[in-house]
Amino acid sequence: MSNHPDFDQYDYHVLQELRRNREAGRITYLAQALNFNQNPIVSFIIMQPTTNNLMGKVKTTLVITNRIDQANAEDGLIPADRVRSITLTNVLVDTGATTLCLSKSIINQLGLKLLKEIDVATATGIGKARIFQDAKISLCGREGTFECLELPGGSDPLLGVIPLEALGIELDLKNQTLKLLPISPTETYFTIL
């Protein structure tokens, strides 16, 4: 394990830098790293090439609800106060992640059901990951139900590109915020072509 100035300030220790890609004035690192809890993390991190500051780091707050619980409450099968839901703050919006990614403990709190096990590409090669279903996301006043990938150990949650696109939300990297795409009778991000 070595120190890496671009990662140390964010409490990560890089085990191995695997690849760099220079594109549009940024460097994308694919690295295998450990956080202070010694949980392995594999992530794309977008960096400015001449500084040690993360560029495009956007964090958000989102509410995740067990959609099956919610449907059961709507049908009168369970009381509304038994619907499992959690509010997560400081969730990293990660354009290197495909979908919503949650730790096992959050998945267990929500009571999400296993959908399948899949092969995923990691910094150490191809590995296995579990996909869970019926995670309803509420973000910026928009809602949608998505699958989520189980992260190893106590890894921090990530919000990937599929939920963002489906909800009509874009990253504004310059201002480090999320931007709602239009959805109105005169202009909408939804297309049927």
Keywords:
disordered N terminus, 193 residues, Peptidase_aspartic_dom_sf, mainly beta, 4 helices, 12 strands, Aspartyl protease, 2 domains, three-stranded antiparallel beta sheet, Cathepsin D, subunit A, domain 1, 13% helix, single chain
Residues in helices, as a percent range: 10-25%
Low-confidence stretches: 1-54
Q: Mean pLDDT, rounded to whole units?
A: 77
- N/C terminus separation: 50 Å
Question: CATH top level of the largest domain?
Answer: Mainly Beta
Please report which band the strand proportion falls in: under 5%, 5-15%, 15-25%, 25-35%, 35-45% or over 45%.
over 45%
Radius of gyration: 18 Å
Rough outline? globular
The run of helices and strands is: HEEEEHEEHEEEEHEE
DSSP strand tally: 12
* Name of the CATH architecture of the largest domain: Beta Barrel
The name of the CATH topology of the largest domain is Cathepsin D, subunit A, domain 1
Q: Give the structural class.
A: mainly beta
Number of domains: 2
Largest sheet at a glance?
7 strands, mixed
Organism: Coleofasciculus chthonoplastes PCC 7420
Protein name: Aspartyl protease
InterPro entries: Peptidase_aspartic_dom_sf
Pfam family, one: gag-asp_proteas
Overview of the structural elements:
It holds the Pfam family gag-asp_proteas. This is Aspartyl protease. By secondary structure, the protein is mainly beta. It folds into 2 domains: 5-47; 58-180, Acid Proteases (Cathepsin D, subunit A, domain 1, Beta Barrel), CATH 2.40.70.10. Helix content is 13%, strand content 50%. It is built from 4 helices and 12 strands. Strands 4, 5, 6, 7, 8, 9 and 10 form a 7-stranded mixed beta sheet that branches. A hairpin with a 4-residue loop joins strand 11 and strand 12. The longest helix is centred in the middle third of the chain and has 8 residues, at 67-74. The radius of gyration is 18 Å and the shape is globular. Residues 1-54 have low confidence and may be disordered.
